[in-house]
Design goal:
The complex is a heterodimer of chains A (330) and B (171). Chain A is mostly helical and 330 residues long. Chain A is built from 13 helices and no strands.
Chain lengths: 330, 171
Amino acid sequence: MSIMDWAWLLIKILIVIGITMLHVAYVVYFERKVIGHMQARMGPMRVGWHGLLQPIADGIKLFFKEDIIPSNADKPLFYIAPVISVIAALASLAVLPIWEAFSIVNINIGLLYILALSSVGTFGIILAGWASNSKYAFLGSLRSAAQVISYEISMGLSLVPVILFAGSTDLVDIVNAQVKYPFIANPIFIVPFFVCLMAAIAETNRAPFDLPEAETELVAGYATEYSGIRFGLFFIAEYAGMFIMSAFITVCFLGGWYGPDAWIPWLGFLSFVPNWIWFMLKVYSLIFFYFWIRATLPRYRYDQLMGLGWKIFLPLTLASIVVAAVVKIL
Amino acid sequence: MSVPQFFFGYFAVMLIGLSIMVVTRKNPVHSVILMLVLFVHIAGVYLFLNAEFLAAIQIIIYAGAILVMFLFVIMLLDLKKEVTERRFLKPWPLGLVVAGTFMVFITAVLGKLTVFPEPGKYSIDRIQAEGMMMTIGKVLYTEYLLPFEIASLILLVAIIGAIVLAKKRLE
C-alpha cells in the first residue's frame, strides 16, 4: 500500500468515528424527543431551539463531573471495563459497508467479525459489574452475561439463511446478493429477520430486554458505581451498539445501500438519490423501531426472557435454517 | 527483520508472556482477562496463517462463550479466600525441571524434522480460490464425516448429562 492509500484509510476511519460520535449524541436527543412525544410530553426544550443543543450540554457535563471510584473496587478492571465496551463497539464499524465503495476495510468474514466483537463487548459489562464491588452492579452483570450468551445463539443461527442465500460472509457480497430483491421480501426470511431484530435488542441491553439495568430492581445495574466520563463511555458503547446492530440488520436483510429504485421498476426516477441516503434511512427506521418498542412494551420478567430466547427463538431459527436450506437446494 | 517476521515475533513473545501471566495471577478474574487477551492473540496467529475463518471462530467460541462461562463460575467462588492463599503446590520446582527437560527434548527433535516435505493438496491458492468456509465444510462433511459425527454425539451425551444432573428429582 502506498502512502496515499494509508492516508485515505486514516481519513475514512476519522470520518466514520466522527459521524458515529455525532450520531451517538443526537440519537440520545432523538430518543428523548420520540419517547417524549409518544408519552404526550415535549422532551428536551430548554437548551437551544427545541433543545437542539441538549446533547452537547450533556456531554460537557459528563466530561467535567467528578470521577468517583468505590473504595474496594478492583481498580485496573474498573478502569478498563468501559474501555473494552467502547473498543468493541467502535471496532465493529470497520467492516460496515455504507455504500459499495465505502467501508473502511472489506474482509471476507465481515459477518462473523461483527458477531465476534459483539460477544467481546459483553466482557466490558461483566467486568464493570464485578469490579465495582457492589451487589446491584454484580447482579446486573450476571444477568447481562446470561442474556447475551442466550441471545447470541439465536442471532448467529438467524443469520445462517442469509449466509446460505448470499453464499458468502462478506458483507459487500451479502448486499450485492440482494440486488434483485431485499432478503426480507422473501417469505423464508421473515422468521430470521424477526428473531435477529429481537436478539439485537437483547444484545444491546435495550428495553424490553433491559434487565441488566432494570431501574426498579437494580438501581442502574452494572453502571451503578460509574460516574462522569466513565459512565459516558458505557453510554457511547450502548448507542453505538444500537447503530451497529441496525446497520448490520440493514445489510443482512434490508438490502444495504440499494434503494427501492433498484427493485421496483416504476420507482426508477428515484435513482438520483445517493446510495448512502437509502442506507441511513433504513438504519434510522430500525433505530426508531427500537425507541418505539421501548416506549410501548413493559420490561420482561427474567424467566420469561430466558424462556423466549431458548424455547421460542432457538427452535424457530433452527426450523427456518432447515426451510432455507431446502429451498436453496430446490 | 521483515514485516512477517516482526509480527510472528510479536505474537510468539506475547503468547508465551500472557500464558505465564495467566497462571501466575493471584486473582482468577485477572487471569481470565489475560486469557481473553491471549485468545485475541491466538486469533491474530490464525489470521497470520491465512485462516481468517478460524480466527473469527476462535473469538466467537472461545472468547465469547467459553470464557464468559469461566467468568460465571469464578465469580461464584469465594475470591477473598482464593486471593490470600498460596498460588502453587509445594513441589513446583520439580514440575519446572520436568517441563524444562521436556522442552529441551522437543527443541532437539524439532530441529531434526523436515516440515512438509511435499506440499499437500490444500495449498493457500486453492483455499483462497474456494473460500476458507467452503473448504472446511467440504472436508468435514466428506473425508472426516465419521469423526465429525462422533464428536457431535459426544457433545450430545454431555448435554444430556448436564440436564440429568441439573434436573430436580420428581417424586
